[in-house]
Amino acid sequence: MGERSAGLVSTPFWIRRPSLLFEGARVDRDNPDLAKLLALEPEERFVWGVLPHAARSFAPCIISLPAKIALPMAVGYLYCRTLDTYEDLVADPGARRRALLSLPERLERLRGGESAGPAPELLYECLDPRDKAHALLADELSRLDLLFLGFPAPVQEALCDLVSDMSAGMRWAADTFETQGGSLADSAQLSEYCVAVLGNPIRFAARLFQWLSGRGVDLDASVEGAARDVGEFLQLANITRDIEKDLLRGVAYCESLSDSARRRSAGDAALIIAARTALCDRALSLAPAYLELVDGMRLGSGLMSSSALMMLRFTDQHYRRTAARVGVEGGRVLGVSSVIWRSLPGVISGAWARSQMQRSVDGLCALQSDLRAQASSMYLS
């Protein structure tokens, strides 16, 4: 017990939650203070300090979860971010594959009572300071490991499944990008990639909530399917945001940009607008799955409903900004703090939170219609 408590902050989480939300909203993700992040002690403080740099809008949603599952969700997400970092920033295919294999093996060793050993020594190709923060996290795996060891057995099981499934998906993605010249070929491959990156974490969150509710960690088939679709809906937000940056890395998520990816060029503005529009349209078609997942999980009132509403609103705001980038009026965009505080009443009323989620999904479906009208107009012109 002494080893576990050494990694935790003694102040109860519910007392620290408001300050963590406030601090996270003020973080400069474009210019992270790497030295300050490295100096954070104990391990739990490091997790909450690095999370906003690794998770963006997911960070306040994780902090807003019930205390019993907030830290496991944060640690699980950071392990996933590490896998994503291997896939994004390790250029050598052999080293990348070995790294992707190493993380699930590491957790199984820990779970079996063995020593995990040091984090793999890798060469990261960082394009900006945000990438450097992700690389820093990947080098500090031992801090996550200590917290993992303190989780209950069902949580460890779900977390190991998460990392194993995501690792397999990332290995498939790395091989696919390599053999196809840096691009995905069709919608089926895009779905598979999105499920690997964010469908698995969404499934993990659902399993944690179900465990917290006393229903074990096995999900119904309907919840499993909704989690896959929600993962794609959320991951397409990252993809539509970072098209230009990904092209400079030699990666394209649709065939129309494959030549740009091979040239490592983001110069063809018309092609990028068309691709961003098509990807956004695909994402918005999946928005109703969010309600299916919420209903299948039977959230009710409480922190989980507030967190789910917050996540949907952050995603709503992203797609409205994305619509504006392709010339479609997306409506009013709220700041981070506004999204957080306006979602908190969901703690008191699950019915209110559900009605607000329905309102967001209806708005996203309307935005999809506007995007399609814009795309049709561009085509006819």
Helix content: over 70%
How far from one another are the termini?
69 Å
According to DSSP, the number of beta strands is: 0
**Radius of gyration from the CA trace?**
20 Å
Describe the largest sheet. Answer: none
Report the β-strand fraction as a percent range: under 5%
- The count of helical stretches stands at 19
Low-confidence regions:
none
What is the typical, i.e. mean, pLDDT?
A: 92
Overall spatial form: globular
- Helix/strand-derived category reads mainly alpha
Q: What pattern of helices and strands is seen along the backbone? A: HHHHHHHHHHHHHHHHHHH
Describe this structure in words.
With 381 residues, this protein is an all-alpha fold. The chain has a domain at 1-153. The chain is 74% helix and 0% strand. It contains 19 helices and no strands. The protein has helices at 2-6, 13-26, 34-39, 43-55, 58-63, 67-89, 93-111, 129-139, 141-149, 153-179, 187-212, 221-241, 243-248, 258-263, 269-285, 288-297, 303-325, 336-343, 350-380. The chain is globular, with a radius of gyration of 20 Å. The model has no long low-confidence stretch (mean pLDDT 92).
Outline of the structure:
The protein contains 19 helices and no strands.
Primary descriptors:
mainly alpha, globular, 19 helices, 381 residues
Fold blueprint:
Elements (H helix, E strand, L loop, with lengths): L1 H5 L6 H14 L7 H6 L3 H13 L2 H6 L3 H23 L3 H19 L17 H11 L1 H9 L3 H27 L7 H26 L8 H21 L1 H6 L9 H6 L5 H17 L2 H10 L5 H23 L10 H8 L6 H31 L1
Helix pairs in contact: 4-6, 4-9, 6-7, 6-8, 6-9, 6-10, 6-11, 7-10, 10-11, 11-12, 12-15, 12-16, 12-17, 15-17, 15-19, 16-19, 17-18, 17-19
